[in-house]
């Protein structure tokens, strides 16, 4: 995972890209994000912060930011993909209400151990996972 501007500059140059002012603004804006965001939420927050970054720039740079480990894909709904700043909270999983799209984050060591056991049993080296439990929250069941 890229940890600072200098490392990111090296990473970008290694990809044959330039570290533009717009990319720097995008990175700064993402570092300020709290919680989950999709592209529209991110662009709106960047504008509120006085940073002019286009949706196209965000979409073009997401794959690079994901590969650099600066942004993590958090979960998907039927409508969108959500991300979060990779440094935010460490690994966690999600309960997602399919009615109102409420998100509950949770950590469960037993689930983590079970996944490792299953991977080992199948001679699989686990690198990442995204646990999404989808259902209806109490409010939407009424």
Structure write-up:
The chain has six helices and five strands, in the order ααααββββαβα. It is an alpha+beta fold and 142 residues long. It folds into two domains: 5-85, Arc Repressor Mutant, subunit A (Orthogonal Bundle), CATH 1.10.10; 93-141, Ferric-uptake regulator, C-terminal dimerisarion domain (Dna Ligase, domain 1, 2-Layer Sandwich), CATH 3.30.1490. The strands form two sheets. The chain has a three-stranded mixed β-sheet with strand order 4-3-5, with no helix packed on it. It has a two-stranded antiparallel sheet with strand order 1-2. Helix 2 crosses helix 4 (55-68). The model has no long low-confidence stretch (mean pLDDT 86).
Major sheet: 3 strands, mixed
- Averaged pLDDT: 86
Helices and strands: which structural class?
alpha+beta
Number of strands: 5
Strand neighbour order, sheet with most strands:
4-3-5
Order of helices and strands: HHHHEEEEHEH
């Amino acid at each position: 995972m890229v940890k600072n501007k200098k490392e990111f500059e090296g990473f970008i140059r290694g990809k044959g890209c330039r570290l533009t002012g717009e990319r720097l603004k995008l990175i700064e804006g993402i570092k300020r994000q709290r919680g989950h965001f999709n592209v529209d939420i991110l662009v709106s927050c960047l504008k509120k912060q006085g940073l002019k970054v286009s949706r196209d720039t965000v979409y073009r740079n997401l794959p690079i930011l994901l590969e650099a480990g600066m942004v993590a894909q958090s979960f998907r709904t039927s409508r969108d993909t959500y991300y979060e700043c990779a440094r935010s909270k460490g690994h966690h999983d999600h309960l997602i209400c399919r009615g109102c799209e409420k998100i509950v984050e949770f950590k469960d060591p037993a689930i983590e151990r079970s996944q490792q056991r299953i991977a080992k049993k199948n001679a699989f080296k686990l690198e990442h996972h995204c646990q999404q439990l989808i259902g209806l929250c109490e409010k939407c069941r009424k």
